[in-house]
Specification:
Elements (H helix, E strand, L loop, with lengths): L8 H5 L68 E3 L2 E3 L12 H4 L2 E3 L2 E3 L10 E7 L15 E6 L7 E9 L4 E10 L4 E13 L5 E16 L2 E16 L2 E5 L20 E17 L3 E15 L2 E7 L5 E8 L3 E18 L2 E18 L3 E9 L18 E18 L3 E18 L2 E7 L2 E10 L4 E12 L18 E15 L2 E17 L5 E19 L4 E15 L1 H4 L13 E9 L7 E10 L2 E2 L7 E2 L2 E14 L2 E10 L7 E4 L5 E4 L4 E9 L1
Parallel strand pairs: 3-6, 12-15
Antiparallel strand pairs: 1-2, 1-5, 3-4, 5-6, 7-8, 7-37, 8-9, 9-10, 10-11, 11-13, 13-14, 14-17, 15-16, 16-19, 17-18, 18-20, 20-21, 21-22, 21-23, 23-24, 24-25, 25-26, 26-27, 27-28, 28-29, 29-30, 30-33, 31-32, 33-34, 34-37, 35-36
């Protein structure tokens, strides 16, 4: 039986003979400049003993002026998740890695430094996002149980450059993006961008947004640099489509697409801001200091939850609209890290000392609800006038956390590596109404250990054990305690595997993992709370690289065997599988550049997933589905400038089904249907 192959942590630890697995070589013929720690970089050679390499481990360098070459298939180092601009490939995303969300957990980095995002910066500021799990997490001195989402900034270039993108899709959504970089003098370069999306969604909801970004790099010497940045996004119209919640063990009826089930006034808007400052300072020959200070905030105006509680599989139910007063959410976070490197012939020793901190503040609650009575979601929504909502007093949530850590990394060329780290975290949360504050405190010790053995030049083994203190997000809109911030949780992970260089740039990764966390979902009173512990055990595999000079592939799969334990399971109140569990996932992407047609390429993506558990009692599942996307690119010169015309159709066969929403709590929306988009990118 599959689960019996590694049913205990001890059996996983028995596999933890780990290997040197440096970042993989990219298949892109002309890859953008990358840093040593990026997954698309070629393997990093150790520096000579008298010339230690103290290059900051920043993420992907900006490619403003070369956006026409963006290709997530050819630039991916593995199949565990990569996004380059608008292009995406891989098995995982920043919202789902090994069954969990690293963003919700707080495992986000900006150019390798700790960042607590309220909202993630847009592609005007971030050029690439890499999911770091398995061997791609090696080189991170303080890994995290749910993996790491590493955001690589769009750094300004040393020469003037610009990129323009305009697009349109068959749902009548226009898109426009502009990015530019400009050297001011020999030490200062600036970058700026702007964009707008007037989105018309799959359920005919509108999401109209406008944004701008600014970034600068001041480098007065080769040893010191400062990188300030800011990204502002304003959403003027955000329609709130319905969530269907069956009041029994059944799925909603097939919902009509391209139909907005109102009311028309259930819409709002928000303002999102991300800003920060990164400093890198090389002191002498062997010392590196990296520091980052970041601010992320969101102000939401007129937020609504449009919920239809279905009493019949025929689509009949009660519609309730819940509105909120203005919501405010902000976090200040950052990290200071000092690294001492000692080169000793073929061996490199690194000692890291870090201090991370964050201060978060949320103002939420005070909502009011209005019932629109009995409706049928298969018909036209009732036309009702906007109500006068009576808001109550709002709760406040204050979070403070400091973490100090020390880590050692030792690498021996041709032999292996060792990485050991320990951290002490001090966490404090105060939440509630004035005079009724609830306090939560935690101060755990956290550790990580990684051991590696390079078996041959082509084969290496990897693995390790790591613990963490992570956030668990906020209660979903459909919960009785909607928007309430949930307590921090202690988590753990074991993983191990093998990495094989197949030759010609092809790379194979296969491994096993176990991630353990407290299990949150709706209890019998409708509160979103801890119901037990969830243990996700699985096998994952990736193969990526060029099969021939013309054809590149990125293919990955995961077999997951999750299990919920605890008193609620024993008493039959909770099923043995967590809501949102998907046992099998496969994602295959390919990019073909036929030699007989220079400038022309074709691409395809197949995404398969087995049934998804939809209810706490495990009696309802979202059915299996397979989605296929097809596209193509044509590269050419436009007035002497590099340009590409991109056309892509997603869900080509118009597969019908549902998406699970509300943190996986038996709330559904319709699966988006087929849509075709086209956009033109020109570099200057």
């Amino acid at each position: 039986m599959y689960g019996g192959q590694f049913a205990t942590p001890a059996s996983l630890l028995a596999l933890a003979i780990m290997g040197l697995a440096g970042p993989a070589a990219a298949a892109q013929p002309l890859p953008p400049p990358v840093s040593p720690n990026d997954s698309t970089a070629p393997p990093v050679a150790l520096p000579p003993a008298d010339e230690p390499d103290l290059t900051p481990p920043a993420a992907v360098v900006a490619a403003t002026g070369s956006r026409s070459s963006e290709n997530a298939v050819r630039q991916a180092g593995d199949a565990f998740g990569t996004s380059i601009g608008r292009e995406v490939s891989g098995l995982y995303s920043r919202e789902r890695v090994r069954g969990f969300s690293p963003v919700v957990a707080g495992n986000v980095r900006i150019d390798g430094l700790y960042f607590d995002p309220i909202v993630t910066p847009s592609s005007r500021l971030v050029r690439a996002t890499t999911i770091r799990v398995g061997p791609s997490a090696l080189g991170s001195p303080f890994p995290a149980p749910t993996g790491i989402v590493d955001l690589g900034l769009r750094r300004p270039r040393r020469e003037a450059a610009a990129s323009v993108l305009i697009g349109y899709n068959t749902w009548h959504t226009p898109t426009a993006e502009f990015d530019a970089s400009l050297p001011v003098n020999s030490t200062l370069s600036i970058g700026f961008g702007a964009g707008t999306v007037l989105e018309n969604g799959f359920n005919k909801t509108r999401d109209h947004s406008y944004e701008g970004a600014f970034i600068a790099e001041w480098k007065p010497s080769a040893a010191f640099s400062l990188l300030p940045f800011v990204n502002v996004r304003e959403t003027t119209i955000d329609d709130h489509g319905p969530l269907s919640i069956p009041q029994g063990n059944f799925l909603p009826p097939p919902l009509p697409r391209r139909q907005f089930f109102g009311p028309w006034w259930s819409r709002g808007g928000d303002t999102e801001i991300n800003a920060g400052l990164i400093a890198d300072w090389t002191i002498g020959k062997d010392w590196l200091v990296r520091a980052g200070l970041f601010r992320s905030q969101r102000v939401v105006r007129d937020q609504f939850a449009n919920v239809v509680r279905l009493t019949s599989p025929a689509g009949i139910g009660q519609q309730t609209i819940t509105g909120d007063p203005t919501l405010y959410n902000a976090a200040t976070s950052g990290e200071v890290r000092v690294t001492r490197r000692i080169a000793d012939g073929p061996r490199l020793h690194q000692l890291h000392v870090t201090v991370r901190g964050r201060q978060g503040y949320r103002r939420f609650g005070g909502s009011d609800s209005i019932s629109l009575g009995t409706i049928n979601i298969l018909t036209v929504a009732p036309d009702v006038p906007p109500p006068v909502l009576k808001f109550g007093e709002q709760q406040k949530d204050n979070v403070r956390q400091w973490t100090g850590g020390i880590a050692y990394e030792g690498r021996w060329v041709g032999v292996g590596e060792l990485s050991v780290g320990v951290q002490k975290s001090d966490y404090s949360k105060r939440i509630g109404l004035p005079g009724a504050i609830t306090a939560t405190d935690a101060s755990p010790w956290l550790y990580n250990i990684t051991v590696g053995v390079q078996v041959t030049k082509a084969i290496s083994l990897y693995g390790g054990s790591v613990t963490g203190l992570e956030e668990s997000g906020v209660a979903p809109n459909i919960a009785a305690n909607r928007n309430e911030a949930l307590p921090a949780i202690q988590t753990s992970q074991l993983d191990a595997g093998v990495r094989i260089a197949l030759g010609g740039g092809m790379r194979l990764i296969a491994g096993v993992f176990q991630v353990s966390k407290p299990y949150f979902n709706l209890d019998t009173a409708g509160r979103f709370d801890v119901l037990g512990e969830v243990i996700n055990r699985g096998i994952e595999a990736s193969i990526a690289g060029p099969i021939t000079e013309e054809l590149s592939v990125v293919a990955g799969g995961v077999l997951l065997r999750p299990k919920v334990t605890g008193d609620a399971v024993t008493r039959g109140l909770v099923g043995r599988l967590p809501v949102g569990a998907i046992s099998e996932r496969v994602d295959v992407s390919a990019d073909w550049r036929p030699g007989f047609a220079p400038g022309l390429s074709f691409d395809a993506r197949l995404s398969y997933r087995s049934p998804e558990i939809a209810t706490v009692n495990n009696l309802v599942s979202v059915p299996t589905r397979t989605l296929i996307d097809l596209g193509g690119r044509y590269r050419f010169k436009l007035a002497g400038n590099d340009a590409v015309l991109r056309i892509q159709a997603t869900n080509v066969f118009d597969e019908k089904g549902f998406e699970l929403r509300g943190s996986g709590a038996n709330a559904y929306t319709v699966l988006p249907g087929r849509v075709t988009q086209a956009y033109l990118t020109v570099d200057f």
